[in-house]
Specification:
alpha+beta, GntR family transcriptional regulator, transcription regulation, WH-like_DNA-bd_sf, about 30% strand, 2 domains, 6-stranded antiparallel β-sheet, DNA binding
Length: about 260
């Protein structure tokens, strides 16, 4: 692990640390402690609270989230048991430097491209196509669709620091997400949206990873020229009842980035 992820480094308390937390939505469908936990872990994931950061006191967090201290304590305890946080005498609760990405519970919620140094990168998304359609026979079989074959099709581009890194197509059964946002409001984190708005937790993903020569579409969207290999990830995401919920294909250039799966 990089030295800047060493939890033994000097602890810090950034100014206006509470301002780094997103606005809390008390109406989210997930249990409150899981919502608090996710908000805190996302602040860590995106670098707002770096390694060594001392979290606010439990009562401060409870006031911010407008929940009980017990709810906050349960969230912090869970993150501590997962290695994301650690308790220090006289100091308080400290960010260890272990990203939630490395934990199985958070494994399926985040973009998994890393730069060549191994650090996680953050992406912005651009919707290329959005439409309602009917599933093909193959899609219907994989998504276990029977009478209702209505689906939502998404095609989007992932951009990292101005570099076109990946484009991906996703198919979701409309009957499972009947109020899915229109194109201009599609969330960047689909898994998070499914959890908070539909109580659908992605519990497993079955992936097939291959390498192919870039197609004409890949060359255009990823700014590459043939001969150029792209990594192709075909996956099916399953919810907590083992029902398939997303069928996807991701096509990425690895010229600047690598795809890392790490579970501990």
């Amino acid at each position: 692990m990089n030295s800047n992820n060493d939890p033994a480094q000097v602890s810090t308390r950034p100014k206006n640390v509470m301002a780094d937390l997103p606005q809390f939505d008390a109406h989210e469908a997930a249990p409150l402690y899981e919502v608090v936990k996710r908000y805190i872990s996302e602040a860590i994931m995106v670098g707002k609270w770096g390694p060594g950061t001392v979290l606010p006191a439990e009562n401060e967090l409870a006031t911010h989230f407008r929940v009980s201290v017990g709810t906050v304590r349960k969230a912090l305890t869970a993150l501590t048991s997962e290695g994301v946080l650690m308790r220090r005498r006289k100091t308080g609760t400290v960010v260890t430097g272990w990203s939630p990405l490395h934990n199985l519970r958070y494994f399926f919620q985040y973009f998994r491209l890393h730069d060549k140094s191994g650090d996680l990168v953050q992406s912005e998304t651009k919707i290329l196509d959005y439409r309602h359609d009917l599933a093909s026979d193959d899609e219907a079989e994989k998504l276990q669709l029977k009478d209702n074959r209505d689906v939502i099709r998404l095609h989007r581009l992932r951009i990292v620091s101005g570099i076109k890194a990946m484009h991906e197509r996703m198919v979701l059964p409309l009957e499972r997400v009947p109020f899915f946002p229109e194109q201009e409001n599609v969330p960047a984190l689909i898994y998070q949206y499914l959890l908070t708005e539909h109580s659908i937790r992605i519990a497993a993903v079955r992936e097939t990873v291959t390498a192919q020569l870039a197609t004409e579409e890949d060359q255009t969207l990823l700014d590459v020229q043939n001969p150029h290999a792209v990594m192709v990830i075909n996956d099916i995401s399953f919810d907590q009842t083992t029902t398939p919920i997303i069928l996807a294909e991701h096509r990425a250039s690895t010229e600047h980035f690598s795809y890392i799966n790490e579970i501990r």
